[in-house]
Design brief:
55% of the residues lie in helices and 7% in strands. By secondary structure, it is mainly alpha-helical.
Length: 328
Amino acid sequence: MTKRIFSGAQPTGNVHLGNYLGALRNWVALQQEYESFFCIVNLHAITVPQDPAQLVEKTRDLARIYLAVGIDPQVSTVFIQSDVKEHAELTWVLNCVARMSELERMTQYKDKAKGKGQNVSVGLFTYPILMAADILLYDTEVVPVGEDQKQHVELARDLAQRFNSQFGETFIVPQPLIRKEGARIMGLDDASKKMSKSASSPKNYISLLDDEAIIRKKIKSAVTDSGTGIKFEDSRPALANLLTIYSLISKKPIKQIELDYVGKGYADFKADLAELIVLWILPLQAKIKGYLDNKDELVKILVAGAEKARARAEHRMKAVRGKIGVTL
């Protein structure tokens, strides 16, 4: 039987080229191999303060991007997390199974809580349990994630095994699927840090909604390393990152790109990379705008996706309630 995958993204910040090359592009391919559930995880977003009106709009924008990049609602289940109440219900159950020590080890919590002192929300501390609930609710067998999210899938595995041990076989124990090539697209302004939706500077990323002039400007100003020649080397991480982006978009091997730029410098390479990105992104932006202009179709897709997800989630929660003794 076809295996099932689950993945999702938060409707915050600006969805960027790194999100596409590291995750969305992979999801589009995986939906042909797996029964796929792709969620807009808006409950994760509220672990930090959000403007409510903006969160609603960002949620719709992310749904448009999912569909525009090629996630097919006729093949995959596309839905908004908060439309399926079982996510929150299973989170509470797993809160009662998880251990404080497990959450205290989460490196992303430590990073995000840094400098916030007593103002860190409980939700930020416990959101890995919500992520575990997201995964386990759908009998997920494979979770496509970046290396930085592997720890959260491991927590989901631990919670599934502990629940099964305490209450009997209930959850499938999921496996992470980590894409190596292009899984970590680094910032254009700092090649030591991942391209991020929450970056303090817009120079860090190419937003999927950036216009042509902004894209050219950002690529032109992208940091480069010392040395000459266009060559992929670990000692030149900024150039290696740009070459990775070029390779993934053009579908050319890096070795071929290096040969194409023998005798040329950064200026030529950056100018060509900017044009490559512009030519690739304009049709995508047209598709996004198409869903923006047709809100009724977007809502119809999300409602249908939520109904399908809800049926699966309620089936799993019915079993959970029976196992823990909270149903008559």
